[in-house]
Amino acid sequence: MIAWLQSRAGLWTAGGFAFLLVLPAILPELMPANQASFWLGNIFGRAIVFGIIAMSLTFLATYGGFVSLAQMSVAGVAGYVVAITVNGAAPSIVGGLAYMTAIPLGIVAAVLAALFVGVVSVRTRDIYLLMITLALAMGFFRFVETNIAWFNGYEGIRNVLGPTVFGLPFRDPHVIYYVSLLLAATLYGGVLYLVRSPFGLVLQGIRDNPRRIAALGYNVALHRVAAFGVAGFIAGCGGVMMTIYNIGISPGSVGLGATINVLIMSVIGGLGHPIGAFIGSLIFAFFDTFAATIYDRNRFNTLIGVVFLAIVLVSPDGVIGLAKRSYAYLKAKSAPQRWDKPT
Amino acid sequence: MTLQLTLTILLNGLTLAALYFIVASGFSLIFGLMRTVNMAHGSLYMVGAYVGYAVFEPLYDQDVWYAWYVGLVAGMAIAAVLGVAMQKTVLGWMQGQELRQALVTIGISIIVADQLLANFGATSRQFFAPDAIFGASFVPGVGRYPTFRLFQIGVAIAVGIGLWLLLNRTKVGLMIRAGVDDRDILSACGVNVPLVNIVVFALGAALAGLGGVIGATAQPLAQGVDGRFLLISLVVVIVGGMGSITGTAIGAILVGLAEQVGQALFPTYSVILTFVIMVVVLALRPQGIMGRAR
Fold first, then answer.
1. Does A339 have pLDDT greater than 60?
2. ipTM for this prediction
């Protein structure tokens, strides 16, 4: 831990986290109060919430090589279970549970859904896995859209206000922000820890050469499904936060657009390190908010599509890869100058 | 359920399957040869339908009999042009990087869908079939049935036979089948593989455009059909097997029938039936019913 903090990556992470911790105090100094709360809730807060869901995809893609498009649906399962079971949601479908019970239930459901996705796709790889998970995601979307009895169809379920935390209502932008930030930081630390554990190493071995790992005596299928379960836990946490953040959930939250948005966030940030998910979701939230000023009020999708396309064409490993290469380039550029210096 | 109703549902399933086959065969063809998962296939469908409609509408207002046919050709042509442009400009030089190609085509589909919304708005549109295939015909056991839907089955059969003849009886087909097995050796034999790729991409995209015009004649065309037909194409080729025409036909029939039967028996859960089929096939034969093991 100490050694990691002394490394460059560790310093950056700790610095970034410290910055986000004090951000709510800095923002009002830089801009009027209403703008500060907008930036906190609608840009940084949202980026963190969706960054958690995007991180579940980044985890699978980076360490397992599985580009699963079902992560938004898994998050949606958690969100829907909370919305269905919790007290006060409208319409009340099952109801009766407090948030303390409904939230763990939602996360368990998300893990089970993710394990199911893992089992269904266990014999496929790469592009096939992407197609199958996309098909499953679209199936889930069409199911919740058409089913009235459990999911209230097209309307979805509203009024999921969230619990009170230490006597404070969840709707306070600061509460949502800090809960998401601490949750994200915990999950992020968990992912970094997990990938150094024996399980994480086997997972990376499966990514590089599943046959060799199988020959070493590891159960490849079991490790793969377990990785989906871990990602499901992360996505489930994100899904619960997303549902409370949006004060409810509707099919639109798990549709093709939302599914692709998670992919866009992960890819823009960079599939290569979990931090990419948060960088990508921040860039996404930024473009989403300012598309009207940058290009055209209603053409957000064209703008984000062009940005996405540019990133995929120029730097398949996203902004992180771009930064790494620029760093290496600058270093290489400054290196020859040392030759000139007399020693 | 009466016999007549059962037969009607089955016929509905088959006509739907016909449309699915037309669209998915293009997707399967492109994937079979190039290993390119064209996530913009639904967008090609939608572009074909909208542009076809834009050509069809003024002609229809002038009341000329060939309006629909011209719209059909225009829809296929624009889809083919767009497909070739995609292959030429971006997909061609990243051949072999399947995931990157999938991501690129997703990016293209986002932009195309948004631009179509900007240019055509959100109002739904529907072609009027020409007089020759308009109205209803008598089908034994079913009674009166829309002629256009029967025509749809005819088109699908023609497409299926045409593709089979092309792949198995022509020189281009020989090259395509050789390319599926070993691109490098085909290239070493002096065949211009990038050109074959472009021909296949044009053909696959034109089939999406054909499906677009036919689909927009049978049911209204609105924003969002790109996602629907991308999903259908994915499920059909996952079930039927990648790159196999027969497999695509089997997959389309299974999915089309499952959708109609499901909607008749348990309306709000019908979507699940389609996915149960997909999951069962994946569990038993991951490469699809007619797919070759790799």
1. no
2. 0.85
